[in-house]
Amino acid sequence: MKLLCFAHRGEAQAFTTGLEAIDSNYYTGKDYSVLITGEGIVSTLTRLPYYIAKYDISTLINLGVAGSLSKHTKVDNIYGIRTIYAEENSDTYFHSFTTKNCGASIDLITSSERIFTEKRSKFLSHFAHTVDREAWAIGKVAKEFKLPIYVYKIISDKAGPQTQCLDIKEKAKEYSQKLFYFYQQLNRIETNDLDEEELVSLDLPFGPSFTQQKRISNLLNKIDCEVCYLKNEFLESYSLSGNKKKDTNLFIQFLENKINPINNKIHKKLDENFDEFKNIGAEIKFDPKLDQNFFTLKMQINSQTNIENLAQTLKNYDYQKFQRILNGEIDV
Amino acid sequence: MAKSMFNKVFVEHKYKDHPKAQHIIKQIKFDEVVEINKIEDIWGKVKKPYLQKRESLNLFLGEKKGKLVKEAPAAYGHGSEKHYYFIHAYNCIYECQYCYLQGYFNTPDLVLFLNHSDIIDEMEAIINTKGNEDAWFHAGEYSDSLALSHLTNELPEYYSLFKRYPNAKLELRTKSSNIRSLLELEPLPNVYVSFTLSSTDAAKAFDYKCPSVKARIKSIEKLVCAGHRIGIHLDPIIYQEDFLINYEGLLQELKKVLPDNQLGYISLGVVRFTKDVYREVQNNYPNSPITKQDYIKSFDNKIRYNRSMRMWILNNTKKLCLNSGYDEDKIYFCMEE
Question: For labelling, which of A172, A205, B235, B336 has a CA lying 20 to 30 Å from the CA of B95?
Answer without folding.
Answer: B336
